[in-house]
Amino acid sequence: MLKDLIISIQAYFQAHAFISKHKIWRWIIIPGIIYACVFVIGMYFFGQTANHFMEWLKSLIQDSLTKINSSFLSFLITIGSFMIWIMMMLFYFSLFKYFFLIVGSPVFAYLSEKTESIIEGKSFTFSLPQLLKDILRGIKLSLRNSLWQTVYYIFLFMVSSLPVIGWFLFLLTLLIECYYYGFSMLDYSMERHKKSAAESIYFIGNHKGLAIGNGMIFYLMHLVPVIGWIFAPAYAVIAATLSLQPIKEQQEFDKL
Questions:
Q1: What is the structure's pLDDT at 202?
Q2: Is 254 a member of any domain?
Q3: How many domains does the chain contain in total?
Q4: Percentage of the chain with pLDDT > 90?
């Protein structure tokens, strides 16, 4: 897993060199600007909703805190409330992520196919039927992953307010979030190689490091305002395609 994790992280640096060399910035910047604008608007309203919920929750327990008058308990509740707020924001962002994955499927599928065609030295021929298949596959997978991730979030949300245990589960939530995003990026290549959804799930499950590393850098790029938001989606899909090349060279795809 560690080897796959390193490969997926290195792939982001390779993606930057790849984009610069082959001058495909227009496929990066234009969708990226749209993503950044929708991201800012969405997270603003999500943040407002989370704040209102936390104010309502604090009002419910305020009287109990006053009667107990325990500074330690108040500290634990404050930390727990903060963890719940973070979990809500992650859940909102997860929903937004899947929404954009579905809407942006045509661009992601095109970028993944174009990247592979350049790597393998093939002339890129546009195929509408194949593109539509990639889009439909991406939508189905996004819906599947969002359903499973919601199930995990419900459980993690319930225990996120618990002292210590809930704090460690927050890290697990981040790993799950990274895995499922990277999964979606890798699956474009799996579809292009005629692998079924079951084969894709099996393969990526055996190479979790590729998915987690891809999603991890994607989220870290969001820490860089504007520039990171613009570049993150397209870099993720190109990096995912590049990260699969060492495995393809080992003919591991053929073993599925």
A1: 87
A2: no
A3: 1
A4: 14
d(CA 108, CA 98): 13
∠ CA 129-134-139, nearest 5°, is 125
- Residue-wise pLDDT for 132-160, tens only, equals 776 677 677 777 777 777 777 677 666 66
pLDDT of residue 12: 94
Q: Is 61 within the bounds of a domain?
A: yes
Mean pLDDT of 231-249: 87
- Spell out the residues 6+ positions from residue 159 whose beta carbon is closer than 8 angstroms to its own: 165, 166, 169
Question: Residue 12 corresponds to which amino acid?
Answer: Y
- Given a cut of 90, whether residue 38 has pLDDT beyond it is no
Residue 253 included in any domain: no
217-240 burial: b if 16+ Cβ within 10 Å, else e: bbbebeeeeeebbbbbbbbbbbbb
Q: Are 174 and 212 in contact (CB under 8 A)?
A: no
- Residue 163, helix vs strand vs coil: coil
Q: Which residue has the tokens 């590393």?
A: 213
The structure tokens 């504007």 sit at 226
Range of the domain at 179: 2-248
CA distance 201 to 168: 27
CA distance 81 to 143: 29
- Inter-residue contact 24 to 228 (CB < 8 Å): no
pTM score of the predicted model: 0.78
pLDDT in tens, 110-129: 888 888 888 877 765 666 77
Residue 197's pLDDT is: 76
Closest CA relative to residue 9, chosen from 211, 228, 252, 172 = 211
